């Protein structure tokens, strides 16, 4: 399964310009958009969400910051989303249970959202994205603010989702690239300085680097677009 972005994405906002950035085919697995703060990751995702919806595509976009009604139960929030995405009523229950299972929230389904930990809060956000069988799941910095244990659990959820649904995810955490990425798109100042497989990305590291992923990340960000093959 793949999600094709036909046209390059290009946005001008004040003095900042994004792109044109060609995403092309987002395949099953995790396409990871990386780069430092202010490089254009969130702008890229907002523009992708806008254009995809205008075309009638089934895209599920989870922004970096989101909230839930504090006294609603997890299952009720899922039901609210299912009612708006799935026309056939008899299909909604199964879709909710599948989404809860895929994101490891079955045991938390009766909890109110205010009782969820930070990691479980993010899991519920991802759970909602997979309801209704989207063509692609887009996650904007889902690991931000989580501790090591929560981040590890969230990565397992993202990998599980990506086995059947293409995932496009942004991050500034180099370890996410190491653990999750099948493809890496690296941005600097609104421009793509690298787009390739995780193996190709790692090939840009110093040969004797103790942390090759960090080495590749730093070397690519320091290079010019013309220097990157």
TrEMBL record:
Q: List UniProt keywords, sorted A-Z.
A: ATP-binding, Nucleotide-binding, Transport
Tell me the ranges covered by the ABC transporter domain, including all copies: 3-214
- Per its record, what are the GO molecular function terms? ATP binding
Under what name is this protein listed? ABC-2 type transport system ATP-binding protein
Organism of provenance: Brachybacterium sacelli
